[in-house]
Amino acid sequence: MKLNSIESEILIDIYDADMLPEMPFEIENYNLIEEDQKKKRQEFSFYLKKLKGLALIKYEEKEVFVNKTKYNNNNNNNVKIIYDKIHIDSKGIKLVERYIYSNSEIKEKCMIWANN
Question: Which pTM was predicted?
């Protein structure tokens, strides 16, 4: 499965946040499609859930997301608040480190591939 540029950036930033705790990742760092803050959180959580589904990151849903009653069909969730108790999993670490190694001469982030 191919990760899009936002998913790749999120994965790398979670890796960085785990390796260097003073480097938190925040929704504002990403060029998300949604403009409304509430919808941005839902879009961001959509990407997090995809990365978790690929076993690249790990978190307990009840510790990370606070849900509201109104459901957003575009992003398939009703997330209201996101907490930062998200960590990279061993598969994600291997993927990011392979990416960093193979692109050590390239300064900017680009698309990466996730192998199932």
Answer: 0.74
The C-alpha torsion from 85 through 76 and 90 to 94, rounded to 10°, is: -120
**CA-only gyration radius of the chain, Å:** 14
Q: How large is the angle between the packed helices 5-19 and 37-53, nearest 10 degrees?
A: 80
d(CA 3, CA 92): 12
Contact 57, 87 (CB under 8 A): yes
Q: Which of 41, 21, 103 is nearest to 112 (CA)?
A: 103
Give residue-wise pLDDT tens across range 4-16: 999 999 999 889 8
Q: Could you tell me if 86 and 14 are in contact, meaning their C-beta atoms sit under 8 angstroms apart?
A: yes
What is residue 112's three-state secondary structure? Answer: coil
C-alpha–C-alpha distance, residues 13 and 2, integer Å: 17
